[in-house]
Structure formats: C-alpha cells, structure tokens
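TL;DR need structure tokens for one chain.
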Amino acid sequence: MNVTARLALHLVPADLRSQPLFLCIDDTMVSKFGKKFEDVSKLFDHAAHNGSNYFNGHCFVSLMLCIPVWGRDRISYLAVPLGYRMWQKKESKLELASAMVRQVMPEFHTQKNVIILCDSWYVKQNLVSVVEEYENLDLIGNARADSVIYDLAPLPTGKKGRPAKHGRRLSIDRDFTLSTEKVGDYYTGYRRVLTNIFGAREVMAYVTCTGKENGTRRLFFSTIFPAQLQIFCAWQEKAPLNRTGSGWMPYIPLFLYSFRWNIEVSYYEQKSFWSLCAYMVRSRKGVEMLVNLINISYCAMKLLPYMEETLSQYRGGSVQEFRFALSEQVKRQIFYVNLVQNIENHIKSTALIKALQRLCLRETA
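>> reply
TL;DR here they are.
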C-alpha cells in the first residue's frame, strides 16, 4: 500500500501539488458457494439480487487514493486502489479502515490537504478519531439522517454557572434553508454545527433534497471549510466543480464528495474483468495475498501510462483496453523470440532476421 501510494504521488505535477488528495474508504463483498473457505460467513448485502439479502462469502475493506493529474488541459483525478483487508468479525470494519489510513498517512506528510471520503457506515467515532491525529487530514462523509446535531454554542452571558457547550438541537427538515435553485442535482442547505460524532469540533453540515418542498433529505458532514481549501475550480474536468463564482464556493466540500464514486467503479471493473471474485484458495492469508496481487496488477495498468511517455495515448482510457493492448504486444514479442530460436539453419535464419528487423523498424517508426 505504501509503495503504491509513493509511486502515485510521484505522478502529481508540480503545479498541482497544492490540490487536495482523497482517500476513499468502502467495503465490498464476494459471494462464495463453498463453506470450506477460511473466515467465510453469512453476510448481509442490501444490494443483492439473488432473492435474498443474505449469502455466504467474504467482506473486504479497501482504501483508494485519488491524485490530481492533467488531462486535456483540465484537472482530472486518477483513482488508484491501494489495498484490501479481509474483515474477520473479531475487529470491526471501522478499526480495519482506521488501521489502513494510519499505515499510509506517513506518505502524505508534505501534503496540505488529505481528505477521507466515506459513506454513513464509516462516519463514526472510530474513524473520526484518526482525523484528529493528523493536522493535514480531514473527512467529508455522508451521515445518518437522524444524527444528532446542535447549533453552535451561544456567546458567554456573563452570568454565573457553566457556559453552554452547544446550542439547541437542530432538525434537517426545519432548520436548514435550501437553495432557491439546484446546486448540482439537489437543492442544498448548509450551516456550521456541532455534533456528538466530532465532539467539540465545529463542522460544516450539508442537507440535500431532491425537491424544493418535498423529497428525501440527506445529511453530510465536512471537517474542512471552503476557506481552507485551495482548489483550481476553473480547471476541474467535471461539473459542478468547474463552476466559479462566490455563490458556489460554500458548496465545494459537498462537490468533492462525488470523488468517492471512483471506488465503486474500481469494484465493478476488478470483479467483472480482473477475476477478483474467482479465487479458489481457502486460507485467509492466501485469499488476501491473491486479492491484493490482482489489485497490484490493476494499479500497474492505471499508473503505467502516466509513468511511460510512450504509452501516454492510454491516459484516461479504459484500463481493460490498455491491458489488452499490452498483452498483444507481449504475445507478439514471445512469438518473435520463439520463432528465431527454432529456425533450422543459418541460411533460413539470415533472411528471416532481416525481415523481422525491417518489421521492427517500421513499428518503432
């Protein structure tokens, strides 16, 4: 994980090193029909499509790094999955995620802003406590809609007694004024709040809704405020981050949460095209090693076009297409080598070698 993170950081251009980096955290499940795999257990998956939300399998917690790179004169974020850890139930997924963040954070000691992106499952004290351990680490995450939030503590009144630690309790339905127009895809309201999850630390709370009057409301927390971010909005590849103007600035932390979707794309690609679910080894250590070996291969295909200028045409393209193109070149080289080694005599080989030399010169040109 640390080596992959170090390689990825070397790819960040010098003029983009002030831009924030993102650590996406999530977990994914792999269904296994056999029950002889070590640590296989019955898992619940709300998105299962097998007629039941329960199945036998393994659950993996993973960490992904998103780094800024240039692509067609725009800032795009390259998503690099760092590694997987199998959940064994003797420690929670939150503890696994926290340990993975602590492992890679020394690689980012020179970065100004490193931001954890996670869903409501991980916005809990076990992971939030990690944010307090590093000055350059923050968190933007979805939270449960029923999370307890308070207004900021009132100013001291000068009267006797202990001052209030927080203001009145707030409701996401009544105490957030939604924008008059859609911000991105939602009507959005925001304000500084206090919450039990983050203790005495002030955080920015965002409430989004699909409709102006009616609709499902969602709650997001951000430990970093817009004024603390240095982000080149006009150069961003995708909307709504590339929209400038003072009216959009307060919503920047909420827009950054969209980078978390990269980890879902990575799960889909590795499961569909990289045989992440097809392992047959039974020991927990063997499964973890194989899954991470597949992940290293996947990362190599993501990083190589940015490390080798001759392969720059594959930057921003499909990882699977680049893997296919690279494998075709490897097959061709193997064919050439075997053909030359099996030539019967010197007379035949001289003519064939000349033909191969002309072919190689034509391809390199």
